[in-house]
Design goal:
- This protein is of the alpha+beta class and 151 residues long.
- The chain contains four helices and four strands; from the N terminus they run αβαββααβ.
- A four-stranded antiparallel beta sheet has the order 2-3-1-4.
- The radius of gyration is 28 Å and the shape is elongated.
């Protein structure tokens, strides 16, 4: 009888100690994990631009919406980013007010986009008439050394 009373008191304490030890161990393991990141070989095409002063908000929006249309119609486009969160300017003379990003599956897809008739139409009708100035950049990563090698 005495043993059962003792176990009713000791067992909850033992369970609590085990739970706390497990929580502590999980916290240690999580704290030791390094940040994981990728280095995709897709191509990122970033454009920073300034609209012409006379370009209306509607004209600007049509140009941005045209990027969505192209993404749906031009092969090789993986993702697009259309909402600028921050545009850092070097000087007031070089002020840019919008950015957009297009991610392509490969360098070949990025090159094909440049001469695609849908891109050329968008550029001539919805973009160039309202763009004052722009800068564009493309970036990718090296393919892993093992890529393309036969075993």
């Amino acid at each position: 009888m005495r043993n059962s009373v003792l176990w009713r008191r000791v067992l909850p304490v033992c369970l609590m100690v085990c739970v706390l030890a497990a929580v502590f161990a999980v916290g240690v393991v999580i704290g030791q994990k390094k940040n994981k990141y990728g280095m995709p070989t897709s191509v990122i095409h970033l454009v920073a631009l300034r609209w012409k002063a006379e370009a209306t908000p509607e004209q600007r929006q049509k140009a941005i919406d045209g990027i969505k249309t192209m993404a749906a119609e031009i092969p090789g486009i993986k993702n697009i980013w259309l909402k600028p969160l921050r545009v850092q300017n070097l000087t007031q003379d070089q002020k840019l007010d919008t950015i957009f990003v297009i991610e392509f599956e490969s360098e070949a897809a990025a090159e094909a986009y440049r001469t695609n008739p849908k891109h050329e139409e968008w550029s001539k009708q919805l973009y160039e008439p309202y763009r004052d100035t722009s800068r564009s950049f493309q970036a990718t990563n090296e393919a892993p050394a093992s890529a393309g090698k036969k075993k």
